[in-house]
Known about the structure:
Blueprint: H1 2-9, E1 30-31, E2 47-48, H2 59-80, E3 85-91, H3 96-110, E4 116-120, E5 123-130, E6 133-140, E7 145-150, H4 154-161, E8 166-169, E9 171-172, E10 175-176, H5 181-199, E11 209-212, E12 220-223, E13 232-239, E14 244-251, E15 254-261, E16 265-267
Parallel strand pairs: 1-2, 5-11
Antiparallel strand pairs: 3-7, 3-8, 4-7, 5-6, 9-10, 12-13, 12-16, 13-14, 14-15
Helix pairs in contact: 2-5
Amino acid sequence: MSDTHATSNETEFEIDLGPADIPAPADDFEVDLGFGGDLDEPDDGLSIDLSEPEPEPDDEDAEADASDEAVLAELRETLRGQFGDWYVIHTYSGMENRVKQNLDSRVKTLGMDELIFESVVPTEEVVETRSGTRKTVTRTVLPGYVLVRMELTDASWSAVRHTPSVTGFVAHANAPVPLSLDEVEKMLAPAALAKAAALATGPKKRTRKVEVADFKVGDSVMVVNGPFSGVHATITEINANSQRLKALVEILGRETPVDLTFQQIAKV
C-alpha cells in the first residue's frame, strides 16, 4: 500500500530547454536594397526586399507580340518568293555600308541586275546605356559582313568579288555557300521589326534589346551612394533592362551579394 501511495503522489514535470537541434547559421546572406527584378538567387538566408511589385503584362503587350509575329510572317513570305540565293561576303571592318554602295553602283554599271538582285547590311536597334543615360543606336548585326542575293555565275561572282573592300565570300572548299531562308530571316528580322515599329501609330510596346556600355561582369567598382557607399564591389550579374546589377561587397569579413542600380556605382 505504501508503495502504491508513493507512486500515485509523485508529481511528474518536464523542463523544456528548447529544440534539441538548432540549425547552424547560414554561411551567406543576401541584402536586397529594393530595386525589384528578376535576378533569381536561392533563398539561403537573410533577405531584405523593399522592392515594388512589377506590373502585370497587359493586352497591349499581347498586341505587340502579335504584331511582331505578323511582321516576321510577312518577311518569311517575301523571302520565299524571291529569286536567287543569299550569300555572305567578307568586308574590311567598318566598311559594310561602303561595300553595299560600291556593289550597288557596280551592278548598275556592269548591267548585272538580272544576276545580282540586292545587297543588305543587316542592322538592329539597341538601347545602349552609357553613364546612366539610355540612347537608341542602330548597329550592324554582322560586323565585317554583307548579304547579297544573287544567281551565282562566274560573271556575278567576279562582279562581287572584285568590288572594292570585299575580301571574299563565305565559302566551303572555295565554293560560296548559300544561306538557308531561316538564317536569312534571323539576320533580317531585327531591321524589319524596327521599320514596322517606326511606321506604327500609337504607343510602341515592343522592347528593344538593352545593352550596357559602361560596365561588364567582373568589373571592380565603387559604391558611391546608399548604405554601402565607399565600399568596393565586384559585378557578378547585370540586368540591362532594369538598369540594375548584382555585385559582391565585403560585409563582416565575407563577400555578400547585393543589388545595386547603375547610379549607385562608379568605375574604380
